[in-house]
Design the sequence.
């Protein structure tokens, strides 16, 4: 197993002790002057289980931001240990959220190095490689409520939990992102007990500078594996949302995630029309009532005006009454009112849903065998079976 020490002075006694300990642990130790030099090492580029030690001293201390950026670019090459006695919580969080790095103090450095060596040798540490722009199929899916309060947001994030939990042979963690485009509230974070991190003001200052490192800062990782992008400071006036910022974010997400689920506000207008038009699939959510079905029909008419074909549109009927021996009450009436569209019925289980909301744990995670979770699986299956090719040489959303 290869190990690398990123430090410009091999004569430093403290760093030299780390090298000696690595050698005794059975690692082939190689010194490198800097992260830039490491990036050119053949042994590093060809490895997938290296241990990279980045020690800091009073004379040399690479910034955490630079290190995180390097880790993102070289993810899958090895596990990084940043040795320092001083690191603030934000930097520590950014480092550990890479999934392949940690920070240790000098007093515990040898113990942590030994532990990391053992985990790498036994395969406990697994490198997660995120998808890149040319990694194949990318799917952009919109969820729109026929009106407010119909459970559209719940359908979006529960579907994300299911998709993120799927096993995928090509990567250890499914690549799923959820974006709450209703910037006036942080509802998903409230439902799942998460702290949103998307800074719209920072993004709007210069949308073109959005890169993978900034995207990582804006992401909040859910326990199931999907990344949430939700405004940390709710915007009262949606009309002030910068279109270029939204489209820059969505283009960057498409390049970095296999599936992007968009929670579109029920009163979407303006830039959100373009968001929906460029989606590969659109779900329209309503309730199992006559007024709601009428609202769904009006929403579908608007999508028709946007030239979104019926085959790219799915109707979600939420809170359905089910029969004792299976099936749903008044199903034929709804299908007669909404011809030409694929319809997915999600049964009513308000007690279970309420318990999950109060606990901050999704329904799919709490009990995936529940009937309502099997209904959500049908939504996820439609997305999983969706065939969508990555847009080549053009961006999906024009930022200017």
Sequence:
């Amino acid at each position: 197993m290869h190990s690398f020490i990123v430090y410009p002075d091999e004569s430093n006694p403290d760093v030299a002790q780390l090298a000696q300990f690595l050698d005794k642990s059975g690692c082939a130790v190689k010194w490198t002057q800097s992260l830039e030099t490491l990036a050119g090492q053949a042994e590093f580029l060809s490895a997938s289980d290296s241990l990279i030690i980045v020690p800091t001293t009073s004379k040399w201390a690479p910034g955490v931001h630079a290190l995180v950026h390097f880790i993102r670019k070289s993810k899958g090459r090895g596990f990084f240990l940043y040795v320092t006695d001083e690191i603030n919580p934000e930097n520590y969080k950014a480092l550990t959220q890479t999934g392949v790095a940690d920070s240790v103090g000098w007093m515990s450095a040898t113990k942590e190095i030994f532990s990391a060596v053992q985990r790498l040798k036994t395969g406990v540490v697994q490198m997660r490689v995120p998808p890149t722009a040319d990694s194949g199929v990318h799917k952009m899916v919109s969820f729109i409520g026929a009106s407010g309060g119909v459970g559209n947001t719940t359908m979006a994030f529960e579907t994300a939990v299911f998709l993120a939990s799927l096993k995928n042979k090509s990567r250890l963690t499914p690549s799923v992102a959820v974006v709450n485009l209703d910037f006036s509230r942080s509802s998903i974070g409230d439902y799942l007990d998460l702290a949103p991190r998307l800074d719209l003001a920072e993004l709007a200052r210069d949308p073109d500078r959005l890169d993978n490192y900034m995207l990582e800062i804006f992401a909040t990782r859910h326990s199931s594996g999907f990344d949430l992008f939700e405004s940390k400071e709710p915007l009262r006036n949606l009309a002030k949302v910068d279109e270029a910022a939204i489209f820059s974010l969505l283009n960057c997400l498409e390049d970095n995630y296999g599936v992007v689920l968009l929670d579109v506000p029920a009163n979407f207008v303006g830039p959100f029309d373009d968001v929906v038009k460029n989606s590969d699939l659109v779900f329209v959510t309503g309730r199992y009532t006559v007024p709601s079905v009428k609202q769904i029909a009006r929403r579908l008419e608007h999508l028709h005006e946007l030239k979104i074909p019926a085959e790219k549109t799915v109707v979600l009927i939420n809170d359905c009454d089910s029969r004792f021996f299976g099936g749903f009450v008044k199903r034929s009436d709804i299908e007669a009112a909404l011809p030409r569209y694929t319809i997915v019925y999600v049964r009513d289980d308000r007690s279970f849903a309420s318990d999950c909301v109060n606990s901050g744990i999704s329904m799919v995670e709490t009990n995936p065998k529940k009937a309502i979770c099997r209904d959500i699986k049908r939504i996820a299956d439609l997305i999983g079976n969706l065939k969508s090719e990555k847009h080549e040489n053009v961006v999906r959303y024009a930022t200017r």
